């Protein structure tokens, strides 16, 4: 276990910095990279991992990492608002909130989007020769990339930065949170006590969770709808719920290491069970990507990762520690740079795919893409973090919350994704 010392403040709202936060991002980045390496290494076009035989279902389900990113964002982004709502304390300043979100997300995203457009063109391809008009993105689709609605507008030019659909989903969540908080504050004034306010908020979150999953079935075969805010909002709700619950459990669990460990590892075990059921509920990789998950499968993905973060928060409150799987130097380092890593990895893999052509075997392509693509992606992500992300992150406005000071500072600022 990686341990840090926390002092108990007069008003105990929970933890200040999630020790394992960047570590989870690091593990998630590895999972996402592995999935896309396997997809692009397959010399058979659009084979959807079927060339990997028995391993196909496993490779097709480790996209649970995306669900973890959403839950973590739900927790970190909503937490200042939920703490103010539960305790009746000072509310976050909207101007600071907007400024910090823009500085976190926009600069590096615009940087990569411009480079990708210059390198791949409007047809999103490295093939020589002019593409037909219907094989190129329209200018409206290009503008949509800068407005974070590329998932809804599509277009070939968005392919080299295709994973950015999840950034659009995050931006939609960012817009919703202050509006939802305003309504919650209005209702919260009329409710007596923290438990009454928490009960109302959890009921509302549960309703959003169920309705959002139900809305996915409205147009269940279209990517544009399944990644739109109404149909993807369910993914953030477990994190928001954790932000609601944390101030209520912080004081009772503080320094009660044995109880915290029991609750945490119970949550981990239940989350693992949800992951197993999620993984075994559909063995057709062509239908398993998390952005196509429907009904029970969508619910299981969100609950699995929600339980993971519940366990991490409880464990840190009670023991000041986190599992070394996440709280180790390698994963913390990679997790701090995971946003740039995430945005650049498809570009790197497409370059290697173009150089390899279709003449190599699956094994050779897999070895080259993993062996060369991973260090190139890490290097690109690290340089971008150092010279693009970090200067803007250092301009973020720091907000003060009544949470325990930590002896060990966070490995990096707390990015939403």
Give structural notes.
It is a single chain. The protein is mostly helical. It is built from 16 helices and 2 strands. The chain has helices at residues 21-41, 56-59, 64-87, 94-120, 139-146, 150-153, 165-188, 194-215, 223-226, 229-232, 237-253, 257-280, 295-319, 329-336, 338-356, 362-393; strands spanning 2-3, 321-322. The longest helix has 32 residues, at 362-393.
Terminal CA distance reads: 25 Å
Low-pLDDT ranges: 1-10, 400-417
Count of the separate structural domains? 1
Arrangement of strands in the largest sheet: 1-2
Strand content: under 5%
Rg, alpha carbons: 21 Å
| Mean pLDDT score | 88
Share in helix: 55-70%
Q: How would you sum up the global shape?
A: globular
Series of secondary-structure elements, N-terminal to C-terminal: EHHHHHHHHHHHHHEHHH
Largest sheet, described in full? 2 strands, antiparallel
Structural class label: mainly alpha
Total count of strands: 2
* DSSP summary: helix tally: 16
